[in-house]
Automatic annotation (TrEMBL):
One of its GO terms (molecular function) is ABC-type transporter activity. It holds the Pfam family TOBE_2. This is ABC transporter ATP-binding protein. Gene3D superfamilies: 2.40.50.100, P-loop containing nucleotide triphosphate hydrolases. One of its GO terms (cellular component) is ATP-binding cassette (ABC) transporter complex, substrate-binding subunit-containing. It comes from the Bacteria. Signal peptide: none annotated. Residues 4-243 form the ABC transporter domain. InterPro entries: AAA+_ATPase, ABC_transporter-like_ATP-bd, ABC_transporter-like_CS, ABC_transpr_MalK/UgpC-like, Mo/tungstate-bd_C_term_dom, P-loop_NTPase, Transp-assoc_OB_typ2. Transmembrane segments: none annotated. Keywords: ATP-binding, Cell membrane, Membrane, Nucleotide-binding, Translocase, Transport.
Amino acid sequence: MPDITLTRLAKRYGSARDPLAVRDLNLTVADGEFMCVLGPSGCGKTTTLRMIAGLEHPTGGRIAVGDRVLDDVDAGVFVPAERRGMGLVFQSYALWPHLTVAQNVDFGLSLQRRGRRERGDRVQRVMRTLGIDALADRYPSELSGGQQQRVALARTLAVQPEVLLLDEPLSNLDSRLRLEMRAELKRLHDEFGTTIVFVTHDQWEAMTLATSIAVMNDGVLQQVGSPEEIYGRPANRFVAEFVGNPPINIVELAHPDSAPAGKDAGTGTADAARAAAAQCVADRDVSDAASIGFRPESVRVIDAGAESAPGALAMPATLTAVLPTGGSWILEFDADGRRVFGTTSVPLGAPVGARVRLGIDAADVHVFDRSGDRA
């Protein structure tokens, strides 16, 4: 299937005075891509998915699949949902309660008036692929949440949609079933090669499933990239702080021109952080640098007498908590009044309350300017 292209897409609910739910969105979903649209509640991700599906009319902009225009507000073009060749799986499974599993899976095929033999073969094949063929004669009320989700996916896959649209389909499942279904979706994508657009607020779903991630906030696209790019080179502070658990550590850099009279704003941890920022972007002006960030896994406890690498951020701290997670530990420190998180896969060997020294390599420091963009 050709690429899906969103051009200056916008959506407003209510009057012209109401804010836009989606603003000036430019996004391309490549053929065969597994794209996750990630963001907090109310960021516009589900609205974007519904516009792609044809369930919402855009307020402005254009949606095209290759050369085929599905929406163009200026040209007055709108292709209804049933003619878009897309399958949509909702957060609620929306199964017919009076139909068996096999009849639910067959429902879309029957609407397409496919032959009885073709329908039967395809229903059996897709149920077998999803491991629900033994449940063919059961009704939805007799199924677990994970089984119902598989039936909803099977019903959509049976009609062989060119694009599969998933609106937070795993949010109603417990943690074990979510893990199983993530692996199932990954396998289905590899097997069928279907273009998938997956909406979620769960960063780990996005990181583990997607070939690319589009991060949104307040209706605005913040960054598009691979999971590694989103995590390792966040475009701004919002992306850096939204993605990651434990969250990224942020140190604000005080500026002399904004410091209270008689107080040096460049001392202590902030001063060391500014030196680290300068080392990270040695060929650029860092006068506008307002904050730095570093991931918890970048935090090291170093020997008191050890020298720091050139440009590395070093700070004295107090160990305030050790949180076991099973196989690893989250460490909480107090550094000059700032809470700093670290992670380790080996026991630290220091008691809570111990004074330690933390080190972060310059290569692991992210620098942000006063507008929150990556420096």
